[in-house]
Amino acid sequence: MERIQALKLFVRVVDLGSFSKAAAELGIGQPAATKQVSRMEAHLGARLLHRSTQGVTPTEIGLLYYDKCKLIAHHVDEASSVAALLQTQIQGALRINTSVAFGRRVLAPLVLQFMRMNPQVQVDLNCEDRYVNMVEQGVDVAIRMGRLADSTLGSRFLGLNPWVVVASPDYLKRCGTPQSPHDLADHQALIYSTVQGDARWHFGDAVGQTQSVAVRGQLRSNNLSSLMEAARLGFGVAALPQYVAYPSMANGSLVSVLDTWQLPQQEIHAVFPSPRMVPAKVTQFIAWLQGQFGSLWWRKV
Fold first, then answer.
1. 276-295 burial, b if ≥16 CB within 10 A, otherwise e?
2. Cα–Cα distance for residue pair 164/264, rounded to 1 Å
3. Residue ranges with strand state E in 169-224
4. At a CB cut-off of 8 Å and minimum separation 6, what does 101 contact?
5. Would you say 91 and 281 are in contact if contact means Cβ atoms under 8 Å apart?
6. pLDDT tens for residues 30-51?
7. Which of 123, 69, 46, 62 is nearest to 91 (CA)?
């Protein structure tokens, strides 16, 4: 940056024919301006300016150098203008990362709505269940569930992701309906191997009582859609996010059980690489998302 400023100073000295005028324009003292140009000459090993009582004029080498410096200064100013525009306007590439189920069922429709409102944004939506290093992968926004671990990232709270215990009417007819969490020990559980304590499910009720139960079953998967389909087909009882289970609950192929007990809710966060100098496309996308996760949001997606 200092070299760029020195180039700009040299250009203005030649344009104005004066160290004092160029220094005043750039907000520095004349001695500092003179030293900068002298250092530039020493670095190049060539005299760039003729100094006289009437002012300064470029030497032959100085004139050639001036032409190049003026071109460089123009390109730097142009690049700064582009950067400032992209920082303040909702446009350009927006790389988003989230989990497979949430991305397919919830985020993708919301992203399409945002794109319709902001046609100058080009979205790269990446859905995968593994943890992604945002900086290494060049991700602008990640939607993450649960407690955040990396405090160096910027984040905004979006809402809560509630879970529900469900089974098919056929399964409940065959095996009975659990009346308390402890009854799940006698049922076939469809186990999600990523959250909710894995093979131990934790519950709380409205008056603060808690129960924790070890569950078992034939099927264990890190894919929510697979567990939901198994539950629909009567293979057992599943703990699923409301956004996954609700469509099947609405059409009657799944029924919620243990309605007076709650599984832990996950916080939903929008995460971005740094809390400083966040581009407008990121802040506006997150601000828009914050309005999408109100009460019973899973029924609206």
1. eebbebbbbbbeebeebbee
2. 10
3. 189-192, 200-205, 210-214, 220-221
4. 223, 224, 225, 241, 244
5. yes
6. 888 888 878 888 887 888 888 8
7. 123
